[in-house]
């Protein structure tokens, strides 16, 4: 199931395995960290104002 989710994400974002290898791991980690930061701030705002 996880591989299906990853495959659908890569198709939707227009990324391929070759592009990910060319870019490297550091931008991927930065993007995931930024996503977690924004998601947690959004959740805190929603819970705080609810």
Give structural attributes.
mainly alpha, 50 residues, elongated, 0% strand
Q: How would you explain this protein's 3D organization?
A:
It is a single chain. The chain starts with a helix and ends with a helix. It is mostly helical and 50 residues long. It has a domain at 23-50. The model has no long low-confidence stretch (mean pLDDT 87). The chain has helices at 2-13, 17-23, 25-49.
What's the layout of helices and strands?
Blueprint: H1 2-13, H2 17-23, H3 25-49
Nutshell version of this structure?
This protein is mostly helical and 50 residues long. 88% of the residues lie in helices and 0% in strands. The protein has a domain at 23-50.
Number of helices: 3
Question: How much helix is in the residues?
Answer: over 70%
Low-confidence stretches: none
Provide mean pLDDT, rounded. Answer: 87
Based on Cα principal axes, name the global outline: elongated
Question: Largest beta sheet, briefly?
Answer: none
What letter string, H or E per element, gives the SSE order? Answer: HHH
| Structure summary, number of beta strands | 0
Q: What Rg is obtained from the alpha carbons, in whole angstroms? A: 14 Å
> What is the first-to-last residue Cα distance?
34 Å
Structural class: mainly alpha
Strand fraction equals: under 5%
């Amino acid at each position: 199931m996880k591989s299906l989710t990853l495959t659908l994400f890569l198709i939707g974002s227009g990324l391929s395995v070759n592009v990910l290898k060319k870019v490297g791991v550091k931008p991927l980690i930065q993007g995931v960290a930024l996503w977690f930061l924004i998601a947690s701030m959004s959740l805190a705002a929603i819970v705080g104002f609810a």
